[in-house]
Design a protein that fits this description.
Length: 121
């Protein structure tokens, strides 16, 4: 059993900052990548930022220069530092991990329960 637990969401004013954390636990053999996705009301879930186990990163155009993803491989944890937040960043943010629980088995996607971020005055 694998669990991804997010924390750090909340209400912030435009221009403010938040830091999200996600810790993966359970029967994990290896994690290839961890990332953050978000879903605003009435919208599809979309990629925000992803980081691989080698440190390669990819960001959505809308957050480049404002968000920074990082990872602690030893603790199976990923962080999303969000600066200069805008109202359009309001969404539920979901943590994702691509991992295997047993050596030699296919990589699988796992998701957290989501944490809400609201950017408003």
């Amino acid at each position: 059993q694998v669990q991804l637990v997010e924390s750090g969401g909340g209400l912030v004013q435009p221009g403010g900052s938040l830091r999200l954390s996600c810790a993966a636990s359970g029967s994990i053999f290896s994690i290839f990548a961890m990332g953050w996705y978000r879903q605003a009301p009435g919208m599809e879930r979309g990629m925000v930022a992803v980081i691989t186990n080698s440190g390669s990163t990819n960001y959505a155009d809308a957050v480049k220069g404002r968000f920074t993803i990082s990872r602690d491989n030893a603790k199976n944890t990923t962080f999303l530092q969000m600066d200069n937040l805008k109202p359009e960043d309001t969404a539920v943010y979901y943590c994702n991990a691509i991992l295997v629980t047993v050596a030699g088995t296919p990589w699988r996607d796992y998701w957290g329960q989501g944490t809400r971020v609201t950017v408003s005055r």
